[in-house]
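Open question from group meeting: does this chain pack into something compact, or does most of it stay loose? Before anyone orders reagents, we agreed to write out a predicted structure and look at it together. Recording both the input and the output here so the notebook holds the full record.
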Amino acid sequence: MSVDFWINVGVLAGIYGIFTLGLQLNAGFTGLLNFGQAGFMAIGAYSIGILVVDHGWSLWLALPAAVLLACLASVVVGISSLRLRSDHFAIATIAFAEIVRYTLQNAAFSGGNQGILGFDDEWRAASGWMLSKLGAFGLGGYTQLPLLLVVWLSFVALLLALQGLQRTGWGRVLRAIREDEDATAALGKNVLSYKLQSLGLAAALAAIAGFFVALNVTYLYPTVFDPTFTFFGYAILVLGGFASYGGVAIGSLVFWALLEGTRLIDASLSAGQQASLRFIIVGLFLLLLSRLRPQGLLGNVNEMKVRP
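Structure tokens returned:
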């Protein structure tokens, strides 16, 4: 097992961690079954690529613009679908994510299936500078180490910010909506407004995750953003525990250590069989965990009570 391999696993875990923080805010704290997170991530990533390559923007200026565009998209989706029942809202968000993916796959402005290249020159320069500094500690040979550090520093900062928000009155209203939105509305709270805010913040987190995905793959193409990304996020929620931001960190690390670590199993199998075996192992682990600790690794059993 090379150090580079596990650094790449750490990068994936950090990116999915940022992505899943938004799902935790929606599903764990607001009661929104958002299955369109991959769509918001695609909007963020492609916005950065298009602004940098086609319009000459700085990468660092394109990031906040991409976050804003993802938030605006969440408002459009939310206004048109948040009044639906939770299961219907989930279906609507899946449809949204697929609309985004197929649009990017066929539109000229996104490069279609050819994708977008050449948006990461500024990151390469910054990464090279960081590697020169890390060289003093004998770490200059690990090319993905700067991305690992930036991803996890961002994840920790975002996690602390969300935990702080959750302890405010705003966060308590979100919990109240999750428990009983009719009672919350009867107390004079604008439930739709709070749901839109929760969805918008999750979209912003997805756009930031998309930024790091773009830096990691260095090439944007539509199949990166298929619905699997969102379902992996929910698997991480199950592992770490609902309504636990710390559980997102642990869940993402465990999930990716399992999923990627099983690549190292030495078996006389074809590539397809090896991939199937990896998912079987992860699935069995999830089943075992749901039996022994259904609230997740850091979840609270009280969060699992039946909602009205």
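Observations to bring back to the group:
The chain has one domain: 3-225.
The two ends are 49 Å apart (CA to CA).
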